[in-house]
Amino acid sequence: MQSTIRKAVIPAAGVGTRFLPAVKAIPKELLPIVDKPTIQYIVEEAVASGIEQVILITSRGKGAIEDHFDISFELEEILKWQKKEDLLRLVQEVSSMVRMTAIRQKEPKGLGHAVLCAREAVGDEPFAVMLGDDIVDSDPPCLAQMVEVFRQIDGGVIALQRVPESKTHLYGIISGEKVGERTYRITGLVEKPTPEQAPSSLAVIGRYLLPPEIFPILEHTLPGKGGEIQLTDGLQALANSMPLYGYEFTGDRYDAGDKVGYLEANIAFALKRPQMVERLRAFMEKIIRA
Prior knowledge:
Blueprint: E1 7-11, E2 32-33, E3 36-37, H1 38-48, E4 53-58, H2 63-68, H3 73-81, H4 85-95, E5 99-104, H5 111-116, H6 119-122, E6 127-130, E7 134-137, H7 142-152, E8 156-162, E9 172-180, E10 183-191, E11 202-210, H8 214-219, H9 231-241, E12 244-248, E13 252-255, H10 259-270, H11 274-289
Parallel strand pairs: 1-4, 1-6, 4-5, 8-12
Antiparallel strand pairs: 2-3, 6-11, 7-13, 8-11, 9-10, 10-12
């Protein structure tokens, strides 16, 4: 199997109903964490992990995501005229960050179907899948950690994180055998099991390194929970036919698809900004004392 991961698929076709009415006219992927769209954190992680091409899976009304990563001539001219060189550099860095392709998912048939939409663009090579709701703050980047594992094994790699038993119903949960430090050979996956049904506390997080063999599997995967083509079901079939591993990554993960998780991410990344940390800490202490 080719050991280089050059392409990343980022599904971005969902509506994001949990953030209505904020996302009525704005794609949820563009909601900011501090001053940067959520999806930009994902793309930056991809680039820092060696990705050369990002394949966005979008839907109707999501064109603003592509615009964000495109050149904005008018804005750049205004910033030049105003001599705001620092802001100009920020804007230009976004548009030159990575080669990007956008593909429409015309019907909301689930995550497995969204990945399948990228089949032609990916071709016959291993690739990454990165979900925009999972923001991971780590050094090295989460995806880079997985790429290093991928280079050492013969099979796909899925990011794992331990979760409380009370939250297994929110995730895909794996069963498997530990084969190395933080690495597991996956034998089974269950989509959103109850605590009684969960085979472990190791949850699948939104980072995957997959072989191209996943595409014919997804093509023949029947709709599962919610009437959608579940990526978890496809991964189970993949694990039955070839090695599939889970890697318990290091780093802080924030669920930006959840309101509280989104606020936690904003606070955590704001506290990393030297110009913001003093005022923000003072405000937080005032709130706690109240």
